[in-house]
Amino acid sequence: MKPIKRALTAIAVVAATMVGVPSIANAQMDHSKMDATQMASMTDGEVRKVDKEAGKVTIKHGDIKNLDMPGMTMIFTAKDKAMLDKVQAGDKVKFAVINDGGKLVVTEIQPVK
Predict the structure, then answer these.
(1) Which residues are the signal sequence here (predicted)?
(2) What is the C-alpha separation between 56 and 107, in angstroms, rounded?
(3) Which of 45, 54, 55, 56 has the alpha carbon at shortest distance from 91?
(4) For residue 27, is pLDDT > 50?
(5) pTM here?
(6) Please, what sign has the CA dihedral across residues 72, 76, 79, 82?
(7) How far, in Å, CA of 112 to CA of 95, rounded?
(8) What distance in Å separates the CA atoms of residue 28 and residue 7, rounded to the nearest whole number?
């Protein structure tokens, strides 16, 4: 009977641990950073390509703090295609980006003089 009790105890311990794992993972992830309403901070970057017709801009950027994203080069969708009229490839910029349902959207972009 003791081996069965030990096995049940072990299963109970593992089950209790497994229940806690998702809670710990969720506690470490800041879900507000994924929300489109999150206030986007300005990030430094360099425009690599502008596709005004598609409303897209490729930017080599530093860390995007409000999305907890490291620096890299990415293609973003412009919230308004007209904002792409003020930038061109090679421009140093400051820009704001949000995660809108999994789509990264530039809400503001300004050339840096």
Answers:
(1) 1-27
(2) 12
(3) 45
(4) no
(5) 0.66
(6) positive
(7) 10
(8) 32
Q: Which residue has the tokens 């309403």?
A: 37
Give how far the C-alpha of residue 11 lies from the chain's centroid of Cα atoms, to the nearest Å: 38
pLDDT digits (tens, 9 = 90+) for 54-106: 999 999 999 999 999 999 999 999 999 999 999 999 999 999 999 999 999 99
Q: Is 68 exposed, middle or buried (0-12, 13-18, 19+ CB in 10 A)?
A: exposed
d(CA 82, CA 25): 40
Tokens describing residue 90: 């090679």
Report the b/e string of 29-62 with b at 16+ CB within 10 A.
eeeeeeeeeeebebbebbbbebeeeebbbbbebe
CATH-assigned architecture of domain 35-111: Beta Barrel (2.40)
Structure tokens at 95: 């820009």
- One-letter amino acid at 67 equals L
| Closest to 75 (Cα-Cα) out of 91, 97, 93 | 97
Mean per-residue pLDDT of the chain:
81
